[in-house]
TrEMBL record:
Self-association state and partner proteins as the record states: Monomer.
Protein name: DNA polymerase IV
Enzyme Commission identifier(s): 2.7.7.7
CDD domains in the record: PolY_Pol_IV_kappa
InterPro entries, A to Z: DNA/RNA_pol_sf, DNA_pol_Y-fam_lit_finger_sf, DNA_pol_Y-fam_little_finger, DNA_polymerase-Y, DNApol_IV, Rev_trsase/Diguanyl_cyclase, UmuC
Record function comment: Poorly processive, error-prone DNA polymerase involved in untargeted mutagenesis. Copies undamaged DNA at stalled replication forks, which arise in vivo from mismatched or misaligned primer ends. These misaligned primers can be extended by PolIV. Exhibits no 3'-5' exonuclease (proofreading) activity. May be involved in translesional synthesis, in conjunction with the beta clamp from PolIII.
Cited SUPFAM superfamilies: DNA/RNA polymerases, Lesion bypass DNA polymerase (Y-family), little finger domain
Cofactor note: Binds 2 magnesium ions per subunit.
Catalytic activity: DNA(n) + a 2'-deoxyribonucleoside 5'-triphosphate = DNA(n+1) + diphosphate
Major location (coarse): cytoplasm
Keyword Nucleotidyltransferase appears in the UniProt entry: yes
């Protein structure tokens, strides 16, 4: 079931579908459901997706949730709450593949699809009604198609606005459909606690409670100026509109990513900042690769560090010039790491995020004086794009950013020193050439089985 606030009254809101064309589709326990589709023998058992010992819960089946396990919970706590659970390590490649396939199913219904996460999206089906029938029929078709193709279930909320459709999908979980007719929108909202409204976190909920507002009905019946005094002028007006079902935002296809990031939880807490820096290099490389694949550049680099006492520290730096080069992202993140006061505590988690994204084709690539003197940024970008090609063919593990490794046996390794790393490849040797980079490629008789690029 959804952990969100649920209606306190009846759920039979009628079946009038006039004026409702917004669907919110939410895959049920997505990561766990993908794993169960791959491992049918685990169905009916409590299953947790996440690291075996450390990190946090990525997803949990409803059987595990019955014991209080939920996403983002520390894995150690989840194991204590449900010791009989089966722990499955995450497979992000599999989740991405299923997500892309499920979104294709939605886009077969309408072009007006706004994907908001890996497992949820809004649809506006107003233009598809003549072809596919009323929204409730479209919702059932989506659920059938997703189940048939991927073996997972999804819940669908149907309403006249995005906000109410999202609430309805949460209340329909698991594996259900909830329609909220336009005429019943306000009645439906009045059954909810004020925490159900978008933008109401713990602090806002507490602020409203001090003014005696604990339900959506109490908020709607209050003077808007009272709500504004409690939470601020803009937020108060926004919450008042939501309480009356007013949400004019349309479904926006092709929603742009606002940031790209990656993070890692270490198997053991690390005192050695050199090891943390090595992981920062890998994360920066991942972020830059995703930037290039999306045709974006980033203006800001952010660093996230979590210490052994679960204290989370974040720092950010704005670059002189937007970039999609991993080396530049890494240098900024490394400088941020050097400035973090860890209080003598070891590091549990580190993350790198790139923000302030813009299309690479419109970005002004003006190098700083330091960049112009120190190195050829264009050659470095070309080198990293060559790495993208290798990874696209052989997988990400085939080539990785890192420091120069110790020498290996000459019979299994071909080493070549800095040269011009272009996008051309010698088919017989698998070699790339280029400046400001040295690449080590291990060539096997049957093909390339591993490589490290030192950028």
């Amino acid at each position: 079931m959804s952990r969100g606030p649920r209606p306190t009254g009846r759920r039979d809101w009628g079946d009038d579908e006039d004026g409702v064309s917004i669907l919110h589709v939410d895959m049920d326990a997505f990561y766990a459901s993908v794993e169960l589709a791959r491992r049918p023998h685990l169905r009916g058992k409590p299953v947790i997706v996440g690291g075996e010992q450390r990190g946090v819960v990525l997803a949990a089946t409803y059987e595990a949730r019955a014991y209080g396990v939920h996403s983002a919970m520390p894995m150690a706590m989840a194991r204590r709450m449900c010791p009989q659970a089966v722990i499955v390590p995450p497979d992000h490649a599999a989740y991405s593949a299923v997500s892309e396939g499920a979104m294709r199913v939605l886009r077969d219904v309408t072009t007006l699809v706004e994907q908001v996460s890996v497992d949820e999206a809004f649809l506006d089906v107003a233009g598809a009604r003549r072809r596919l029938g009323p929204p409730s029929h479209i919702a059932e078709q989506i659920r059938r198609d997703v189940r048939a193709e991927f073996g997972i279930t999804c819940s669908v909320g149907i309403a006249s606005t995005k906000f109410v459709a999202k609430l309805a999908s949460g209340h329909a979980k698991p594996d259900g459909v909830l329609l909220v007719p336009r005429a019943a929108t306000v009645e439906y909202l009045r059954t909810l606690p004020v925490g159900a409204l978008w933008g109401v976190g713990e602090a806002t909920e507490a602020a409203l409670a001090r003014w005696g507002v604990r339900t959506v009905a109490e908020l709607a019946d209050s003077d808007v100026r009272t709500i504004q005094r409690a939470v601020g002028k803009v937020a108060g007006a926004h919450l008042f509109d939501l309480a009356w079902g007013r949400d004019p935002r349309p479904v926006q296809p092709g929603r742009e990513e606002k940031s790209i990031g990656a993070e890692h939880t270490f198997d053991v807490d690390l005192h050695d900042l050199g090891q943390v820096e090595a992981k920062v290099l890998d994360l920066a490389d991942r972020c830059a690769g995703r930037l290039r694949s999306h045709g974006l550049v980033a203006r800001t680099v952010s660093l996230k560090v979590r210490t052994s006492d679960f204290r989370t520290l974040t720092r950010s730096r704005t670059l002189a010039t937007p970039t999609d080069v991993g080396r530049e992202v890494y240098l900024a993140a490394r400088a941020l790491l050097a400035g973090v006061d860890l209080g003598g505590l070891p590091v549990r988690l580190v993350g790198v995020r790139t923000e302030g994204l813009s299309p690479a084709v419109t970005a002004v690539q003006q190098p700083t004086l330091e960049e112009a003197v120190a190195e050829n940024t264009t050659a470095r970008r070309d080198a990293e794009r060559a790495m993208d090609l290798v990874r696209g063919r052989f997988g990400r593990s085939a080539i990785a950013a890192g420091s120069i490794p110790p020498p290996r046996a000459r019979d299994s390794t071909t080493d070549f020193v800095p040269g011009d790393l272009s996008l051309s490849k010698d088919v017989s040797t698998g070699e790339y050439g280029g400046s400001n980079a040295s690449v080590r490629v291990r060539a096997a008789r049957t093909g390339t089985d591993g490589a490290t690029a030192h950028i």
